[in-house]
Amino acid sequence: MSASSIRLRLGYSPCPNDAFIFYALAHGMAKDGERPELDFDIRLEDVETLNRAADAGELDVAKVSYHAYGYLADRYVMLRSGGALGRGVGPLIVTREPLADLAGRRIAIPGGRTTANLLLRLSHPATELVEMRYDRIMPAVAAGEVDAGLIIHESRFTYPDHGLTCFLDLGEWWERTTGSLVPLGGIVARRDLREPTLHRLQGMLRNSLAIAWQDPGATRGYVAEHAAEMDPSVRQRHIDLYVNRYSMDVGEEGERAAELLLGRAAQQGLFPAPRAPLFLTPGA
Questions:
Q1: Domain boundaries in the chain?
Q2: DSSP 163-196
Q3: 69-116 per-position pLDDT tens digit
Q4: What is the pLDDT of residue 282?
Q5: 67, 124, 153, 238: which is the annotated catalytic residue?
Q6: Beta strands 128-131 and 106-109: pairing type?
Q7: Catalytic residue flag (residue 153)
Q8: Per the omega criterion (within 30 degrees of 0), is the bond before 277 cis?
Q9: What is the H or E stretch that residue 21 is in?
Q10: What global pTM score does this model have?
Q11: Which site among 99, 108, 211, 231 is 20 to 30 Å from 272 CA-CA?
C-alpha cells in the first residue's frame, strides 16, 4: 500500500444487484481523484456472513441487512447509496403444499439477522426457525426437510421451478400494514472513519452505480461470474427489481422506512433503539 492511499476492507454479496452496483468500484473505475486514494480489499459473502463479519469488526465497509444494522449502529453509519429497498422487493414464505397457517411449523430462514427474518418475526412470532444458507432453502422445502422456507434474492423468481407455492409475500404484508417501503439492506461504514472519508465512500458508490447504469452491458461478465443463478434473464430481473432510485439515495422515504423497521424491532426488545443519525448526513 502506498503512502498516498488508504486501504479499506469491503464486503458485499455476490448477488446480481450488488455485483452490478460495485462493478465499477471493484475495477478501479469509480475513483474520485482525491488524495489519499481509497483502495479496497474485497470480500464477497452471503449477506448473513457479512452481517456477522461486520459485527465482529472484520470489515470497514459492508453490505448488511437493515435488521443487522440494529446491532451495528453504535459503530457503523448507513451510507445513503448502494442499498436495496423499495416496493415489491420483499422476501417470500414458500411451501411445498398449501398450508392454512404456520403455527407449529418449521421454517428455514437465511440467517437470524437478515431483514427477512425480522419481517417473519414481526408477522409470525410463534414459529420454529431453522437457519441455513439462502441457496439451500428451496431444495430443503422441496425435499420436505422443513415445512416452509423464507426466500430472498433471486429465489423470488425461481421458486415455481422447485414445485413450490407462495404462502405469503412479507414485503407486501409490510407495505400493506405500514404503507412504508421495504428496507432490505444497505452499505454501512465504520463511524470512526469520519465524515470526509465517509462522504468520499458515498460518492464513489454513486459513481459506481452511475457508471453501471450508463453501460450495463459492461457489468454482465462480473455479475455472471459471481451469481448463483445461471439464467441471464433471472439475473437481469433481479437487477431491475433491486437496483432502483433508492439505490442512488435512500431519500426521506427510505430513511422513514428504516426508522420504522428498526423501531419495531427495538419495541420487541431485539436491541436498544439505534443510535441517531442512522444515515450519513446529506452533503458532499
A1: 5-86+182-267, 92-178
A2: T-EEEEEHHHHHHHHH---EEEEEEEEEGGG-HH
A3: 999 999 999 999 999 999 999 999 999 999 999 988 999 999 999 999
A4: 82
A5: 153
A6: parallel
A7: yes
A8: yes
A9: helix 16-26
A10: 0.94
A11: 108
